[in-house]
Every structure is written in structure tokens, then in C-alpha cells.
Amino acid sequence: QVQLVESGGGSVQSGGSLRLSCAASGPFGSSYCIGWFRQAPGKEREGVAVFDGYGEINFADSVNGRFTSSRDNVNNTMYLQMNSLKPEDTAMYYCALDIFRPCGLRSGDFHYWGQGTQVTVSS
């Protein structure tokens, strides 16, 4: 069974930084998609950063240049470094994984989801 555990959320002021981590475990092999999504109250879930399963990473336009992401393939962990945070980045952030490639910034591409970690940015 695939399990995803997010950590690193919290509350920061506008302009601050946070680093999220997603630890993945289970039978998903070595070639898989993994990404971060977020959902604010009353809004649809949106893709933030996704590794497409072929080594490429895609970022949402709204975070491009402010967020970076990396993977530790030995420990199956994905990180999301969020800099220059804005109040509009406030949301529940979810880690997602799927074994079928390629994947995009679409929540429908992903079958497995973590429980989420809250990020709150105050002005």
C-alpha cells in the first residue's frame, strides 16, 4: 500500500519561507510521478510542482521563480522549498504520487494522496 506523509507546514509572514517534505513508501517501483498540490477554502485543488516521471519538473505559473523542488530517490522523499511566500499561497498542501507516466499539474493524474499539511501566510 502506497503511503505519503507530508510535513513542514506552518504559519509565516508574507515574504517568508517554508520547506515541505513528502515521504513516500510502498510498492511503486522506481519510475513514478510525484508532486505537490494545494487547495484553498472554496477553491479547486491545483497543481504546484510535479515531477512527471521522466525527470522533468513542472511548476504552476503562480509559483514559478519562488518555489523550487527536489527529490531524494534513495529515501523516496520529495521537497518543496517555498520562498517569497504570499497570502495567496495560503492553502492545504498535498503530496501526490502515481505509477503511470507521464503526469502533469492535474489532480486527476494522481491516484495516491497524503493527508495534507497546512500553510498559512499572513500579510
Describe what this molecule looks like in 3D.
With 123 residues, this protein is mainly β. Helix content is 0%, strand content 50%. Strands 2, 4, 5, 6, 9, 10 and 11 form a 7-stranded mixed β-sheet that branches. It contains no helices and 11 strands. The relative contact order is 0.33.
Q: What Rg do the Cα atoms give?
A: 13 Å
The helix content is under 10%
Oligomerization status of the protein chains: single chain
> How would you sum up the global shape?
globular
Q: Could you tell me the number of beta strands? A: 11
Q: What is the ordering of alpha helices and beta strands?
A: EEEEEEEEEEE
Annotate the secondary structure layout.
Elements (H helix, E strand, L loop, with lengths): L2 E5 L2 E4 L4 E8 L7 E7 L6 E6 L5 E3 L7 E6 L4 E6 L8 E8 L13 E2 L3 E6 L1
Parallel strand pairs: 2-11
Antiparallel strand pairs: 1-3, 3-8, 4-5, 4-9, 5-6, 7-8, 9-10, 9-11
List its traits.
seven-stranded mixed beta sheet, 11 strands, four-stranded antiparallel beta sheet, 123 residues, mainly beta
Give a summary of the structure in a few sentences.
The chain is mostly beta strands. It is 0% helix and 50% strand.
